[in-house]
Amino acid sequence: MNKFFEKLIYSESIRSIIIKIILSIIVFFLAKIIIYIFTKALTNLVKTYKQNDFRNSQKVNSIVSISSSVLKYIIYFIVIVIILSIFDVNTLSLIATAGVGGIIIAFGVQSIIKDLFSGVFILLDDQYNIGDDVNINGISGNIMAINMRNTQIQGYDGSINIISNGSITTVTNFSKNNQRSVVTFCFPTDVDVEKVKKIINDFSPEFSKKYKSVIKDPVFFGVTETEKYYVKIAIAIWSKHSTQWQNEKNLREELYKKFKEKNIEFLKLEKGDKIV
Q: What Pfam families does the record tag this protein with (predicted)?
């Protein structure tokens, strides 16, 4: 039995296979190390940007994500070619064969190619970056990752949505420019509109001073809706990108307290304009 294993170990063909396997493992781990170093270097690049350079740091994050994805595709392809060469497979003939069958394969991978090119153009056109609040194809949320083939969005309910880049038709980016939003309150029809207007205008400078992401004082927008039992009054607010929802919430809460202090009665409406 021992002699059998000795012959097996010292057999030239077996030794050759073992060496090839070891070389293949080394090539694979070298590839992993190269990918890690490259990704780490790009990640460190993001950290060099100043905290207030928000858009640029977001763009660099997107470049890191998509560049890492491209690098993995390229390196793993090279690794496969090298490993096949180690095992004496004629890679040139394989590539030639692939060229002959390329037309057939193209029909099967055209969606993949479309996704890859779309990913590149998303980055070049600066349509959106990691961290942006967007609505893509009717799905709203925050961009978590941009890869060569897909974009990952975390919905505001916590769900993760993965959209192939080639299928993206409509993009609304809420994070590129300063945003205007509107907060509304419903009051009884006999409300003193001028008094409400004065409360809002007097309170606005105080609110802007308290919340630094508010670009300018909230503005009394006027009566936007009148019904049998109520009138709806709107207040416009301008915020820095990606802060509009928080500022809407803050303004609603602050005005709620202010109206309570001034004994201004207001109403809460449910679906169907039912007064509560």
A: MS_channel_1st, MS_channel_2nd
